[in-house]
Amino acid sequence: MSLKRRHFLLFLGAATGTSALGALGCTSASGIARTAPGAAGSAGKTVAMRPEPFKPLKSPIPYDAISISADQQPLEYSQYALQDDIVLPDGFTYDVIASWGDPVGDSRFGYNNDYLSFVPTGPDEGYLTINFEYISSETWQQTYQAVTGKTLPFEEVVMALKAIEGKAVNAFELPEGDPLKAQIQQISKEALVDQGLGVISVRREADGKWVRVEGKSDRRISGASGLDDGKYLKSTGPATEIFNKTKVKGYTDGLGDKIIGTFGNCAGGTTPWGTALSAEENFQDQVPEGVLSDGSSLNPGEVTFDSEFGGQGNVFGLAGNKYGWIVEIDPSDPTDSGTKHTWMGRYRHEAVGVRAEAGKKLAFYSGCDRRGGHVYKFISTQTVSDPKSKANSQLLSDGMLYAAKFNGDGTGAWIPLAPNTAVNPTLPSQVMGGMVPLPQRPNGSFEKVTDDAAAQQLAAKFATLGDLYDGTPAEKQGAILVDAHFAANAAGATATARPEDTEIASDGTLFIAFTSGVSGGDGGPDKAVFVGPNGEAEYEAGWVMKVSEAENDPAALTFAWDMFATGGEPADGGMGFANPDNLAFDSQGDLWVVTDMSTSTHNIAVPAQRKDPSGEPIAGKGLLGLYGNNSLWKIAMSGEAAGEAKMFAYGPMECELTGPVFTEDSSTLFVAAQHPGETNGIRTAMATETREFEMKTTDGKTFLQKREVPVGSNWPGKVENSPPKPSVVAIRRIEQTTIV
């Protein structure tokens, strides 16, 4: 038994062959209800017997669960050929449900589909709510006409921007009637249309195949909703005090609490009462992130329209403080365009874990996916009566947002982001990279602080968070929520390692995927908490953390934590994957993990001796090419295989598999394949390259692998020269039984 697995079993408090988690059963899509998890599955097909476990895929990198000895691995792995497809174990297949450009309501299926919410409407049918995160600029341009049948003035705008110093323009200030402004409006609107949310209806046929069906609730809510159709999004909570102010220090769009669109929609969650939650993540690419001390927006010109089509909100004068929230939508209500609940805070949201237990307060968990981002929890003021009641949405209008403080000894506490909370900044010396962004006063926005004394000076000048913000008590609370990330830094919340998914097991345990533990322009993780398996600082491969609330109470203000799983090479203490992202539990309580390696790192060669041309050792991000394509793994939580990680799937070229969600019986796994061909676009004439990698066996011996790597993608059409299209698939066994 490997040391990693022995530690895993000790961690679970179990012995091999026993039930490792006992009561840990199935969970809903991202939430837990103490009644049946009615928001996350289909009644499905009754299965009398659990099928044989799948045979794990032979990934590009040797790992512990494969049946190949370390001595044989250099021979067995000397050659490896990737496929431009979703590759599954024998006995499994997938159905393409919908692809970019397909009709949805009065619009189209958007780009870069991410989180999926499945809410059943009966046996073998239900609503799929889909997030559309962003456009991959070059590939989107290359394939736009072929997919949509329309044209846009790409070349004209790019040429105009090349003639401008900085290759960007503040289109908001261009005069009406300016041809360039009109062209930028065209491109920006179409890019925003391809983001946001979509609702489609799906059904399983008698032969087991999943298909789309026409539904009266099918619709799109996009980044352009409300721009000229009147379909604004609503808002609740204290930030509405800021939106409704007419006299502000900064910029206002004049729309009050009405909001144009939603974009950057990355991960999300599903509530036990049947609504979908969408997390607005990288909104700072389209609108300004910083705000003034009254919570009002910076001028739209702070984020300009550029040659990669960033700054899509600029030309329309979108107010930056209205983006970076959690959006709730009822897929069954065709009139619902979504509500942004501002008690959840404004930051670069990833997933939403939901605990709704009768007689207890409602708890929502989410992470801020940036280097140095925080983990947050919202606790409602009122308690839950019936976890399945749609009245629970009203609980999101009153409560408190907290940010996590992780201590190096495995304990932690939740810090309220309230006006009376003391200013006690996270110090630059505590984090990798030595930088913490803090609220800048009196100028507003934020500044990147690299000196401990400068951070401590903030506490000397401002006693509480309320002192950092202006207005009435209600307006100060709203401004703190609008500026949540920087307020949390000022309050001393722990800087973490890009927290992505927050998933809750049915026993109430919280699992958090931390994708990457290195520093960057936004900050870095806490040195005492985020340490590699051998004590490494700046650990790229990431972790999955387990968090247990005190007395297992959703409203607890203290908790215990431990690292549950570690990414990286098996020879160095990792589980064989890198950069864990979305998580999901199946009906047996086993944990499924998808990876999120940056597309620019996929299959990048790692030469012999792992040194670059200058002779410097290659480490961290430079080694991610070893792992091949992004992939999907299962970690067994019980039984003889407890602690084992097995690769179940890998995605098409230059792609990320996202949003995994099971039907309740685990007979189907819905997955979104995002940005195939993101780097090289259309795979032309079935182009393939041979690249070399210095690999390690599971016991640490080195050898060279020659890998065949398709260049670009033709998925899902899989026809030579066909355009790659982000798509949603349903994965199932060919024989109609459960996946697990």
TrEMBL record:
Coiled-coil regions listed in the entry: none
Presence of keyword Signal: yes
The keyword Signal belongs to this UniProt entry's keyword annotation: yes
Name of one Pfam family that matches: PhoX
Record's signal peptide: 1-22
InterPro entries: PhoX, TAT_signal
Keyword vocabulary terms for this entry: Signal
Protein name per UniProt: Phosphatase
